[in-house]
Amino acid sequence: MNILGKIRDAERTRKKILEAAKEDFFEKGYNGARIESIAKKAGVNKQLIYHYFKGKEELINETIADFVSTVPPVNLILPANPAQIASFRYKVNQNHLMDFLKFTAWEAIEKIPPNTNGEDTRKKVLQSYVDDMRSKQEMGLVPESLDPALITLMMSSLTIYPLLYENVTRLITGLEPDDPEFQEKWTEFLDEISKRIFKMDS
User: Fold this and answer.
1) Quick one: average pLDDT of 77-96?
2) Domain ends where: 70, 96, 124?
3) Which CB contacts under 8 angstroms, 24+ apart, belong to 178-186?
4) For position 6, what pLDDT does the model report?
5) pLDDT at res. 202
6) Which residue of 54, 56, 70, 75 is surrounded by the most CB atoms within 10 Å?
7) Which structural domain, as residue segments, surrounds residue 26?
């Protein structure tokens, strides 16, 4: 096999490991995932994983960075009208990020090493939302009295919680998060409160 062939083979192997790692980490959390299980799913020897990644911490960071890179850029570009951002993020979370969101729920109950779980990658995405809100504030589209970071946190809560905590959503509304009736009602609710906050017509 020539050098180019070896490089392509190595890239394919690394990709298989990352795909298997994503499945294991997202399903079981950081502490529940096992290198042995990831190796089996990837169809490789356990030692080969350590050839590509220094350990579990590097593997989870690379797994999340790889996952974020596969999210279509259009899903990360927020609408120009701030009153449309909440419903937009809700739709993206619902249609593209549910597996990842379920993984983040493990963080609430696990004790994990610092600087893992793709912290740097995720911070870049979330801070880009804060920067976007700050930019809209400078353009006069967001009330000056509102902190862009806190608005972003609020929107994250409103667009994740109902999806992630299915039982709470059902107990309060009588509807499941994946019920089209709930999805329509929640989208309308997000748009309505957003218009009140930003005092703009959608």
Assistant:
1) 96
2) 70
3) 183/94, 186/90, 186/162
4) 61
5) 41
6) 56
7) 3-70
Verify that 51 and 108 share a domain, yes or no: no
Q: DSSP letters of the chain?
A: --HHHHHHHHHHHHHHHHHHHHHHHHHHHHHH--HHHHHHHHTS-HHHHHHH-SSHHHHHHHHHHHHHHHS-GGGTS--SSGGGHHHHHHHHHHHH-HHHHHHHHHTTT----TT-TTHHHHHHHHHHHHHHHHHHHHTTSS-TTS-HHHHHHHHHHHHHHHHH-HHHHHHHHSS-TT-HHHHHHHHHHHHHHHHHHHT---
Residues 22, 31: Cα–Cα separation, whole Å: 13
Number of domains in the chain: 2
Is the pTM higher than 0.70? The answer reads yes
CATH of the domain at 66: 1.10.10.60
30 and 50 fall within a common domain: yes
Same domain, 90 and 175: yes
What CATH number does residue 94 fall under? 1.10.357
Residues 62 and 130 in one domain: no
Cβ-in-10-Å burial (0-12, 13-18, 19+) of 195 comes to middle
Separation between Cα atoms, residue 75 and residue 89, nearest integer Å = 8
